[in-house]
Write a structure and sequence with these properties.
The complex is a heterodimer of chains A (114) and B (113). With 114 residues, chain A is an all-beta fold. Chain A contains no helices and twelve strands. In chain A, the strands form three sheets. In chain A, strands 2, 5, 6, 10, 11 and 12 form a six-stranded mixed β-sheet that branches. Classes of the chains: A mainly beta (114), B mainly beta (113). At the A-B interface, strand 5, strand 6 and strand 10 of A face strand 5 and strand 10 of B.
Chain lengths: 114, 113
């Protein structure tokens, strides 16, 4: 089975600053998809950003961007201009077609300091 | 409509009770999932319904049984649970096949007394 590793159990960032969350994964597949999900305290898990492995261009969604290094099997999330609402657990996830299973990392708890 | 709904939001049950959790989506997704999540931990996959076939995580005890009445509904039947089964139970759905993301419901907070 594929493994997804998030080596930072907890991170903190000052409001308006930039923070980067790390994710590495292990796979022998060449075709796969990577995701970052956000789960605020007692709230619903939502998709932040999605990256297709065959696309070299890094995905961007407003203040969220990824640094996808396929050879290094690294997929980090950068949050710019951090806001209080960014405080949450962030999970990195992997999916390889044709299967429907998602593999999640252990999560990083992000605190935003006012 | 990108919503997955789950009922109830909270459930307290005794170890001898039988209860059911319900999940519904109207996005045309044909893959639906049940996850168990403990606090500050990632979701653990329990079951997947895809192409009308059920896939089971073999570590899930038989006191949990899923049911998929149709492509929009997914139930999780609970019987004779243990206190360690107390957790947040998440339902998710996705399009089948290539790289589609999952959409999660808000979860059911289950407490077994």
């Amino acid at each position: 089975a594929q493994t997804v590793t998030q080596s930072q159990p907890e991170m903190s960032v000052q409001e308006a600053e930039t923070v980067t969350l790390s994710c590495t994964y292990d796979t022998s597949e060449s075709d796969y998809y990577l995701f970052w999900y956000k789960q605020p305290p007692s709230r619903q898990m939502i998709l932040v950003i999605r990256q297709e492995a065959y696309k070299q261009q890094n995905a961007t969604e407003n203040r969220f961007s990824v640094n996808f290094q396929k050879a290094a099997k690294s997929f980090s999330l950068k949050i710019s201009d951090s806001q209080l609402g960014d405080a949450a657990m962030y999970f990195c996830a992997y999916r390889s077609p044709p299967g429907n299973q998602f593999y999640f990392g252990t999560g990083t708890s992000l605190t935003v300091i006012p | 409509d990108t919503e997955v709904t789950q009922t109830p939001k909270h459930l307290v049950m005794g170890m001898t009770n039988k209860k059911s959790l319900k999940c519904e989506q109207h996005m045309g997704h044909r893959a639906m999932y049940w996850y168990k999540q403990k606090a500050k931990k990632p979701p653990e996959l329990m079951f997947v319904y895809s192409y009308e076939k059920l896939s089971i995580n073999e570590s899930v005890p038989s006191r949990f049984s899923p049911e998929c009445p149709n492509s929009s509904l997914l139930n999780l039947h609970l019987h004779a649970l243990q206190p360690e089964d107390s957790a947040l139970y998440l339902c998710a759905s996705s399009l089948e096949g290539r790289g589609y993301e999952q959409y999660f419901g808000p979860g059911t907070r289950l407490t077994v007394t």
